[in-house]
Amino acid sequence: MNNIMRITGDGLLQDSHRNIRFIASPNCDARPAGTAITLLVIHNISLPPGEFGGDGVTELFTNQLRVETHPYYATISGLKVSSHFFIRRDGEIIQFVSCNQRAWHAGLSCWQGKTRCNDFSIGIELEGSDHTPFTDAQYTALAALTQCLCTDYPISDITGHLHIAPDRKTDPGPCFNWQTYAELVGNHMVVMKHADPPYMTVRRVNV
Ligand SMILES: [Zn+2]
Fold first, then answer.
1. For residues 133 and 131, what is the distance between their CA atoms, to the nearest angstrom?
2. Residue 2 CA, ligand 1 centroid: distance in Å
3. Domains in the chain, start-ordered, CATH in brackets?
4. What DSSP letter does each residue of 101-137 carry, written as one string?
5. pLDDT in tens, 157-198
């Protein structure tokens, strides 16, 4: 497979077909020493909620949210959060945190008995909401990014935020089509799990 994406030694995404914007978020820190990256977490976010195309998410992840621009922003002002990647409605991928660093996307969380999912995961935010279908461009970009990350890291599972924080979170929501995602990533790489809630396991094909 000739993936056009790769992760540099600095943990940054490179794409031979287009420029990937890196906007450094201060909301990150070091992963615990020796921690392998084994989990991919899919989210959705839009700011203001349900409105797409603006700068709200970038402002939030860089602690520059202009509270006066929307009433909702007062409720999240001061939140220190981030994710490694953000995929816009047109499929543009923006990176906010090096994969080598721990982004603050999962919060209180647990996956298969392991808590503190930020320690061992990579977070991908899709610009969207729980009740709006995601775009084809987003699925295409997400699948390519997933292939890249699963090649470069020992990721074993792919799941949604709601699956690691079921009492607090609902994203990526019922409009996220796990089957479409799995098919685009490819059966050679992922196996769809039809447990409730759904998630994927990653086939290790590397020698
Ligand atoms: Zn989330």
1. 7
2. 30
3. 5-202 (3.40.80.10)
4. EEES-S-S-EETTEE-GGGGEEEEEEES-TTSPPPHH
5. 999 999 999 999 999 999 999 999 999 999 889 988 876 777
**In b/e form, how buried is each residue of 24-54, taking b as 16+ CB within 10 angstroms?**
ebebbeebeeeeebbbbbbbbbbbeeeebee
Question: If DSSP codes are grouped into helix, strand and coil, which group holds residue 191?
Answer: strand
**Contact between residue 99 and residue 117 where contact means Cβ atoms under 8 Å apart:** no
Which residue, 191, 192, 88, is CA-closest to 141?
Answer: 88
| Rounded distance from Cα 144 to ligand 1 centre (Å) | 20
Q: Is 156 within 8 Å of 145 (Cβ atoms)? A: no
Amino acid at 88: R
**68 is a catalytic site residue:** no
45 CA to centre of ligand 1 in angstroms: 7
- C-alpha 106/C-alpha 15 separation (Å) is 26
Q: What's the whole-model pTM score?
A: 0.95
61 phi and psi angles, rounded to 5 deg: -70, -15
Tokens linked to 202: 């990653």
State the residue for tokens 């923006």. Answer: 94
Q: Which of 68, 92, 125, 183 is catalytic?
A: 125
User: In terms of Cα–Cα distance, which of 7, 23, 16, 90 is closest to 57?
Assistant: 23
| Ligand 1 geometric centre to CA of 42 (Å) | 7
